[in-house]
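Example complex used in Figure S2.
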Amino acid sequence: MVRDKAADASSDKAGTICRALRRAIIEQALEPGARLPEDALGERFGVSRTIARHALGQLAAEGLVELRRNRIAVVATPSWQEARDTFDIRIELERLVVRQLSGRLSKAQLATLRAHVDEEDAARGGPDAVSIRLATEFHILLAQMTESPILIRYVSEIAYRCCLTLSLFGRPHSSDCAVNEHHLLIDALESGDTEKVATLMHHHLDSVAERALVQQAKPRGRDIMDILAPYAATAPAAPSAGRKRRLDAAE
Amino acid sequence: MVRDKAADASSDKAGTICRALRRAIIEQALEPGARLPEDALGERFGVSRTIARHALGQLAAEGLVELRRNRIAVVATPSWQEARDTFDIRIELERLVVRQLSGRLSKAQLATLRAHVDEEDAARGGPDAVSIRLATEFHILLAQMTESPILIRYVSEIAYRCCLTLSLFGRPHSSDCAVNEHHLLIDALESGDTEKVATLMHHHLDSVAERALVQQAKPRGRDIMDILAPYAATAPAAPSAGRKRRLDAAE
DNA sequence: GAGCAAAAACATGCATGCACTTTGCGTGCC
DNA sequence: GGCACGCAAAGTGCATGCATGTTTTTGCTC
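Predicted assembly (502 residues):
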């Protein structure tokens, strides 16, 4: 397992459910918008609603599920703008990671990274979900090598959210070329050229975001409000909840 | 109120407790290490343990309280290294904020910011806790102007954690000069010089961190293990839980 | 008086139960 | 046939109760 969040200690049941759901979400077994009733979860995992509820609370704090009062919890459905913002934050965070790591990784650590990328390579023909999960775990692995609990937490969290984004907006086979970029990243980290590695990470994440977010009109979007937004221009209804800022600045 | 996290909707009791505790923590009414028993909280806020527990879970997810299994929850006590890392992340995040905001703020927004700084100014003679809270809220106010929920969430969270850090390591009157830097920041934001404003924010936060973290030996530290760490060098005990990385690079 | 063990008090982990809210569906009215 | 109303099913919000684990106090021994 990749996660080492404080919330999921070894033997607590809520943590187990958290991990299971998290994985299900990032592997797209649970699509955005999927319903997560407390009793169903509790029954499925053999615990009471109390625990399921607690787990959902944690996941909501991470931004993976949406929790509305008196309503069923659902897997989060980030808007396009949120997705873009998430990637922007991720870029900064991961630049910080590689800047801290550049030239400081042990041979063992480099080997671990390379082994992971090999795994990604092997999964190339397999299902998309696995590729995405492995790619995400590569970034989390990097974060873990900083040994900074806070950085690890934030990068993990935001990487998971990006997964969610990918499953909403991403095209089927957009993560293939990323494997090679991971290789380049490792080489640059080994060389110790801090600026180069930061730039590389920047471009890597930027192009992942680019590949995922080019098509602003979501294909299998399920958020009614967003879909209806363009049509609402004629109606005198409320100005929607969406953000209008920077929509013109789409690349 | 400054917070608009998803977790604390308007009428849910857990959110109320969250906000109350958060405020108590950042105003140093609850010092790091303070005990937070579920029943006591529940009784104090007129709710059951279930709710208090939920609130503690949220706060733990934010890193403000530590939750150990079968043990009483306590206000988090970040290590010096964690504090340093927190500020590093904060710098990147807030640089992102001001880069997005530079030259794009309306007159009303600028006025709001200036009003807040005036408030900070007025609180100069008052208790430290209020100054620190206001200074923190200034940064959160900035983040909110990006209208990016994710950025708002992360900046808020990390700013609160920095508050916690300050109450652990900070010297009594270290936040005074920060008010002026806030003024400069607003002017730079208005001018629209993105690079300048990013640099300004960087230096501002860096110097806050500097002022707070110079004295690595914590004055009113309550973590026995950390206090004992330097003395443990002679003893053949376990190598402690602290991180050794970069400790030599202390400025 | 110091050291230690048992037990009481204390606090959490978790399940269950009840009240309230939302939602889906069927019925009756137009 | 279509629409509004209302009832029942489903689901959450929250409190309480019991089991378990931890901390402190007590009481005994040396």
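The longest helix of chain A spans residues 80-101. The radius of gyration of chain A is 19 Å.
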